[in-house]
């Protein structure tokens, strides 16, 4: 068995992350920072601006005061646990140090509008090593929507990884059908039998799989048994429909699958009996059972690859309330006030008073009303 402690990259392009602004990208484009694949280096690939690097690289400041910066909108807002500033292949041109900050805002503001919001320091100014995945642990437990990487004074960074726990906005999920295992909704793999070729969290990404390694694929099983993955739902729910895609898996899909549900991750109840699946096909299955579950176990027989897995249903009322409470209590104060004055119509003074009383065990009445 393989535990799955790896957290998703909240900034990754496949989850919807976007690099929305940078003060300079003379040598290499800012969008490279959030590419999901590892950085590469192709020697002697010169453009009119010099050697082409797979990352973000600014020009030399030549004594000009200041630092360079880039802003990333997280594809999955949430709790940031680890930041990785990867300087792979930047050896003579990496920054001396970096700072990482984060903020949380309503809606989809333009980059220039973020200046008026409060930025929280997640990583104080810290030295960087070249050609290294520089890793920084984050202790702040608030929910953020954007991060800003500042490099001192200039140079190149191959990738920025923002690892954490997605915490979706309940206004987008409560009292409506949703994909209960989607990474962006808070679903996650907690354990699996094998992830030799690619990890099971891949099958919980948005959109269609792009190629074989963009899904979950196990090694060829030579003994008895079968492979499996345990998935934690966004919250307690009664799953109604499962979708499983074997897109791109033409010679290596599972022969068949089974699906079980659990309220505690220990005792399992069948949701879908063993059912054959086809290569390179999107399947849709109606599920049995009317009891809320918090986890599902997907068994593939005997092994193989799954491109995408979706599980449709509605959160229970208690699960929706629990999600909303977690979200509201973990919003930075400025963002929580904006929610209460915007959607809920409170005055700024009243909203500030409610926010100051957090953590709360019951949702403010005005917020509970808009979630019904």
From TrEMBL:
InterPro entries: Allantoicase, Allantoicase_dom, Galactose-bd-like_sf
One Gene Ontology MF term: allantoicase activity
Pathway: Nitrogen metabolism; (S)-allantoin degradation; (S)-ureidoglycolate from allantoate (aminidohydrolase route): step 1/1
Enzyme Commission no: 3.5.3.4
Top-level enzyme category: hydrolase
Catalytic activity reported: allantoate + H2O = (S)-ureidoglycolate + urea
Limits of the Allantoicase domain: 16-166, 186-315
Domain of life per record: Bacteria
Assigned keywords, A-Z: Hydrolase, Purine metabolism
Organism: Allokutzneria albata
The protein's name: Probable allantoicase
Keyword RNA-binding part of the UniProt annotation: no
GO biological process: allantoin catabolic process; purine nucleobase metabolic process
Family the UniProt entry places it in: Belongs to the allantoicase family.
Database matches in HAMAP family: Allantoicase
Residue ranges of the region described as Disordered: 31-52
């Amino acid at each position: 068995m393989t535990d799955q402690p790896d957290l998703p990259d909240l900034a990754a392009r496949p989850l919807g992350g976007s690099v929305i602004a940078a003060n300079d990208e003379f040598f290499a484009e800012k969008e490279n920072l959030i590419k999901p694949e590892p950085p590469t280096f192709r020697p002697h690939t010169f453009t009119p601006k010099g050697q082409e690097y797979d990352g973000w690289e600014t020009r030399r400041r030549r004594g000009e005061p200041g630092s360079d910066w880039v802003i990333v909108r997280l594809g999955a807002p949430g709790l940031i646990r680890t930041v990785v500033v990867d300087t792979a292949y930047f050896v003579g041109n990496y920054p001396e140090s970096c700072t990482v900050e984060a903020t949380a805002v309503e809606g989809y503001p333009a980059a220039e509008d973020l200046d008026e919001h409060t930025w929280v320091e997640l990583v104080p100014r810290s030295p960087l090593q070249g050609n290294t995945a520089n890793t920084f642990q984050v202790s702040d437990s608030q929910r953020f929507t954007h991060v800003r990487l500042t490099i001192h004074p200039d140079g190149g960074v191959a990738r920025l990884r923002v690892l954490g726990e997605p915490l979706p906005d309940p206004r987008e999920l409560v009292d409506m059908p949703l994909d209960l295992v989607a990474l962006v909704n808070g679903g996650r793999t907690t354990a699996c039998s094998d992830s030799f070729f690619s990890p099971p969290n891949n099958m919980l990404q948005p959109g269609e799989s792009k190629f074989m390694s963009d899904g979950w694929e196990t090694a060829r099983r030579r003994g008895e048994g079968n492979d499996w993955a345990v998935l934690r739902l966004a919250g307690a729910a009664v799953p109604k429909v499962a979708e499983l895609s074997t897109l791109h898996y033409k010679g290596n899909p599972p022969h068949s699958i089974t699906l079980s549900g659990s309220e505690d991750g220990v005792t399992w109840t069948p949701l879908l009996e063993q059912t054959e699946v086809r290569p390179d096909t999107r399947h849709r299955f109606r599920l049995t059972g009317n009891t809320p579950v918090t986890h599902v176990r997907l068994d593939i027989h005997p092994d193989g690859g799954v491109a995408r897995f979706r599980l449709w249903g509605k959160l229970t009322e208690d699960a929706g309330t629990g999600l909303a409470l977690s979200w509201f209590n973990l919003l930075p104060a400025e963002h929580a006030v904006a929610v209460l004055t915007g959607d809920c119509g409170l005055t700024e003074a009243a909203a500030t008073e409610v926010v100051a009383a957090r953590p709360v065990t019951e949702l403010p009445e005005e917020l509970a009303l808009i979630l019904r």
